[in-house]
Specification:
There is one protein chain. By secondary structure, this protein is of the alpha/beta class. The chain folds into two domains: about 10-60 and about 160-325, Rossmann fold, CATH 3.40.50.1100; about 80-150, Rossmann fold. Helices cover about 45% and strands about 15% of the residues. The strands form two sheets. It has a six-stranded mixed β-sheet with strand order 1-2-10-7-8-9, sandwiched between helices. Strand 3, helix 5 and strand 4 (about 105-110) form a beta-alpha-beta unit. The protein starts with 12 loop residues before the first helix and ends in an 11-residue tail after the last helix. Residues about 335-340 have low confidence and may be disordered. This is L-threonine dehydratase catabolic TdcB. Pathway: Amino-acid degradation; L-threonine degradation via propanoate pathway; propanoate from L-threonine: step 1/4. Its EC number is 4.3.1.19. Keywords: Allosteric enzyme, Lyase, Nucleotide-binding, Pyridoxal phosphate.
């Protein structure tokens, strides 16, 4: 048993296979495409992008939210569900609520992008703006749930949410059974916990790399300290991973199954967003660009990449167009002769 994780909270491959059957009724199987730009110019190996920015609601978060809500009892559904999110999990909960005809409430922090607030409302959820950061909103979620009797759908620290995210690992194995390295954004740890469980269940030698921002890296700090530790220094472009404190379910899973976590700075995130747009024609939000930022800044040892098959998760594409414009203006350079889709 994973240290610190109760038996009822252990996520295994059977949970993920069950989630695949449930979530598959609603979610898309997203494309896995090779990036010739990254394979030729950045890594001497084969680099593939798992495009969860093309998932319903524009993010992988729909999977976990959908799986969790589909596991709730009718009594729990009748009370209405509540969650906290900077935006992507919010939309996953809101859309699932719309599809299943249940009331949804989402607590979002002041720093949540406006387009994510608008999209969440567009799916029919009540949006409650509360607190400066995600962690403030997360705490208020618990307080409102207790006061109003609502059912909590936690954004990451939940067995069924983790299992839902793990379905991405199964999809990767369906397409590239002999994948060597998988690079995954990390916030609270739900995505990487689920994917690592799925991938390592098939092949324990698959190298799992997590990526966080230098400005906010609660999971990295916790793994380094050997205990759950808070870390939040400043704003990050990777708002989808802006989680200062990881979950007590996800932390031990990550500690056991993830091989390394690396950090990237804000300029590296912005540069990766620009390259994904300009060279691979992929719109990625900051969190979705973290794996490519790690590749381009050479934060991962070449032995895990050279002559290997590597998958970089593009976890979401919900980015404000004004931010995209600012990033393009910051890094815009003349297109090279070999520019194009790659």
């Amino acid at each position: 048993m994973l240290k610190g994780v109760g038996i009822d909270n252990i996520v295994d491959i059977h949970d993920i296979e069950e989630a695949k059957a449930i979530v598959g009724k609603y979610a898309r199987k997203t494309p896995l495409v090779q990036s010739m730009f990254l394979s030729r110019n950045v890594v001497d190996g084969d680099v593939f992008l798992k495009l969860e920015n093309m998932q319903l609601t524009g993010s992988f978060k729909f999977r976990g939210a959908n799986n969790k809500i589909n596991h709730l009892s009718q009594e729990e559904l009748n009370r209405g569900v509540i969650t906290a999110s900077a935006g992507n999990h919010a939309q996953g909960v809101a859309l699932t609520g719309h599809l299943l005809g249940i009331d949804t409430t989402v607590v979002m922090p002041d720093e949540a992008p406006q387009m994510k607030r608008d999209a969440t409302r567009g799916y029919g959820a009540e949006v409650d703006i509360h607190g400066a950061t995600f962690d403030d909103a997360h705490q208020w979620m618990f307080e409102r749930a207790k006061r109003e009797g609502k059912t909590i759908v936690d954004p990451f620290n939940d067995k069924y949410v983790i299992a839902g995210q793990g379905t991405i690992g199964l999809e990767i194995l369906d397409d590239i059974w002999d994948v060597d390295t998988v690079i995954i954004p990390v916030g609270g740890g739900g995505l990487i916990s689920g994917m690592a469980t799925a991938l390592k269940s098939f092949n324990p030698n698959i190298h799992i790399v997590g990526v966080q921002s230098e400005n906010v890296h609660g999971m990295y700090a916790s793994v380094k300290a050997g205990q759950i530790t808070k870390h939040h220094e400043d704003f990050t472009l990777a708002d989808g991973t802006d989680v200062a404190v990881p979950g007590d379910i996800t932390f031990p899973i990550v500690s056991e199954l993830v091989d390394e976590i690396v950090l990237v700075n804000e300029d590296e995130i912005a540069h990766a967003m620009k390259d994904l747009l300009q060279r691979t024609k992929v719109v990625a939000e900051g969190a979705g660009a973290l794996p490519v930022a790690a590749l381009e800044s050479h934060k991962i040892d070449d032995r895990w990449l050279k002559n290997k098959k590597t998958v970089a998760m593009v976890s979401g594409g919900n980015v404000d167009l004004n931010r995209v414009s600012q990033i393009i203006d910051q890094f815009l350079k003349p297109v090279k002769a070999d520019g194009g889709i790659g």
